[in-house]
Amino acid sequence: MHIPAGPRLEPIVTLEATGGELERRLWERLAPAHWPIDPHHLPAGTALVGGAVRDALLGQLRERPDLDLVVPAGAIALGQRLARQWGGSCVVLDRRRDIARLVLADWTIDLARQEGTTLSDDLGRRDFSANAIALPLPPGAPLLDPTGGLAALRRGQLVAVAEANLIDDPLRLLRGIRLRWQLQLQLEPTTAGWIAAHAHRLVAVAGERVLSELQQLAVAAHGEQGLAQALELGLLTPWAVDAGAAPRLAVLDAGAPARLGLDAAESAAALPLARLAALLPGQAVRDLRGSRRLQRQCGELRHWWQRLRELGGAAALAALEEGERLRLQGQLETTLPALLLALPAPQARSALARWRDGDDPLFHPRPPLSGDRLGELLAVPPGPELGELLRHLTRERAFGRLPVSGEREALAAARLWLGQRRGYQRRV
């Protein structure tokens, strides 16, 4: 799962790349003394590459950044040895290319064998110049930047290393959009042209990998614009994403949680989900191998957005027929803020206030008595009749015809319903 960047620091990418000051500041930010392994236990020729170096330069480094290390040889064997030595676990990511992932407490360290005869050769095979900057270990060695990543970052641009590198792994096409919005860079025009020209190749990538990039993009501060750009460039055409996704995404900007009044935790859960649901139809989530939970959540949100638009927006919540309203509240009990983000704010705030009350009988629908208790007191065996009775009592409680608590009233209502139902069945 993607973790957003921490608080922004002052970028240091503008420092002069000679004299060692830039490297000194980089190591100061990377703080190797706090890493879960001592860098001196890594083999000679090891270099830190990729996101940690890039984010430290831009002032966007997280407290525990993912570390990508290139080693001269034997990456998997090294990862297994370090896991034993430091009490972690090692996962083989690519045996042929000798890539492993070392997990130590809250840290993730990727180890990869150098490709090519030199580190510069390896960096020249990477996706974007921002990710092709290496900081050799131990501290003191000069920064290695054979593809012009520092200059591109100073210009505020994301630049592909080579067209062939994008084609080599078409997921890099979508990753370029994601990095552009996560890092708040501009796509260099030639790079943008390559992404558009080869967008059709993304369909060859495993769905899980595509969905992971989309999920990370949905988390970004301006992720709605990034998802809309991916749609505009044709990257999502194979998954039948309709043109109506763009206006749906437009209302889910970074200010939407504040307009609704969501707190940070609510926003972190609701906004990315709302953006994904606005973008992806249910079949697309299935084709991208999304979890059943995500398929259900996206499908439900899209269904209820459409239904409420038909009835006039947030105010239409109160206009829904009781059974339909109860289905909405039951299906969206945990995800209602994601629905409300796309609705007019005044009425949505009122609904949010009720949703925050965990005892609200409509927004958190529950029967007043459990099925076991009803079966015990009224001799109703498990089965369809008991299920219908529980739904009836839940509805009565949700719409104020039963007290929120009170076994006596609930039992009286249950007996009345059973008498009426059984009497009707005898008549017919």
The domain tally reads 3
- Which consecutive residue ranges, at least 5 long each, have pLDDT under 50? 1-5
The sequence of SSEs as H and E is HEHEHEEEHEHEHHEHHHHHHHHHHHHHH
Output the number of helix runs.
21
Biggest sheet: strands side by side, in what order? 3-4-5-2-1-6
CATH topology of the largest domain: cca-adding enzyme, domain 2
Q: What radius of gyration results from the CA coordinates?
A: 27 Å
Principal-axes geometry comes out as: elongated
Structural class: alpha/beta
- Main beta sheet: 6 strands, mixed
> What is the beta-strand fraction?
5-15%
Query: Judging by the overall fold, what is the CATH architecture of the largest domain?
Result: Orthogonal Bundle
| Percentage of residues in helical conformation | 40-55%
Mean of all residue-level pLDDT scores: 92
Report a brief summary of the structure.
With 428 residues, the chain is α/β, with parallel strands linked by helices.
Structure description:
- This protein has 428 residues and is α/β, with parallel strands linked by helices.
- The chain folds into 3 domains: 1-155, 2-Layer Sandwich (Beta Polymerase, domain 2); 156-341, cca-adding enzyme, domain 2, CATH 1.10.3090; 371-427, no CATH class.
- The chain has 21 helices and 8 strands.
- It has a 6-stranded mixed β-sheet.
- α7 (171-182) runs antiparallel to α10 (223-232) and α9 (207-219) crosses α13 (264-279).
- The longest helix is centred in the last third of the chain and has 21 residues, at 407-427.
- The radius of gyration is 27 Å and the shape is elongated.
